[in-house]
Design brief:
The structure is a single chain. The protein is an alpha/beta fold. It has 2 domains: 130 residues, NAD(P)-binding Rossmann-like Domain (Rossmann fold); 82 residues, N-(1-d-carboxylethyl)-l-norvaline Dehydrogenase, domain 2, CATH 1.10.1040. It is 43% helix and 15% strand. The protein has a 7-stranded mixed sheet. β4, α3 and β5 form a beta-alpha-beta unit. α5 packs across α8. The chain starts with a strand and ends with a helix.
Length: 222
């Protein structure tokens, strides 16, 4: 397959590692760089739609197949912002850093009728998949980022050091990484922005961002 990746180098690396070397991959950094030749690709992986949601319209009049990173913004919200119909076949996927290259791909669909096409596509890509509800945060990013947020609260209160929290989580729960290690791998920017999006969507206090995490996000964004 010819696969177009809209995003960063880390997205290119994860996609190549996930789907293997039998495909042809091309990376572009912005939607405007991809818009003119979308139809020349068999599949598009859009990792940055949350940064430019208005660019969702580039798929409306094109017969293309697209995986949209819906960790921070749902398919329903993107479709609502679109005035007309949608010609492209669109699926949501968990495109947060470190989450794609896993045995099971976390995906969502706009309408249930798309599930058959999704099954065929994932068979071609040789990946298992799990359909989850079309909600901001999906499932795995929401859970892991909430754990990271709680770890920041624990560190902020001085209950334990970051190193001790990471060690305790790995030994006590058999997680591959501690919360702060995970945050570093995902990126504090992505963790903060996902929690912010989930809190806006749910108003659930569990996702209210720790001031220490916000401080680090602002420092890294300066």
């Amino acid at each position: 397959m010819k696969i177009l990746i809209i995003g960063e180098d880390i997205n290119f690396q994860e996609s190549h590692a996930k789907f293997g070397g039998d495909h042809q991959y091309v990376l572009v950094a912005e939607h405007r760089d991809a818009e003119k030749f979308l139809t020349t690709y068999d599949l598009i992986l859009d990792f940055i739609i949350d940064q430019e949601p208005h660019r969702f319209e580039i798929y409306a009049d094109k017969s293309v197949t697209v995986f949209i990173n819906t960790a921070k913004i749902s398919l329903a919200e993107l479709s609502f912002m679109l005035a007309g119909g949608m010609k492209a076949q669109i699926f949501g996927f968990n495109g947060m850093p470190t989450f794609l290259n896993r045995p099971v791909m976390e995906v969502s669909v706009r309408v249930s009728e798309d599930e058959t096409a999704l099954k065929l596509l994932c068979s071609t890509l040789k990946t298992e998949f799990l359909i989850v509800d079309d909600r901001v945060g999906m499932v795995t990013p929401r859970v892991i980022c909430m754990i990271i947020n709680e770890a920041y609260f624990t560190a902020q209160e001085g209950t334990a050091t970051r190193e001790d929290i990471d060690k305790a989580m790995k030994l006590g729960t058999n997680y591959p990484y501690g919360p702060f290690e995970w945050c570093q791998r995902i990126g504090v920017k992505h963790v903060y922005e996902l929690l912010e999006a989930v809190y806006e969507d749910t108003r659930d206090e569990r996702y209210k961002i720790c001031p220490l995490l916000k401080k680090e996000y602002l420092k890294n964004s300066a």
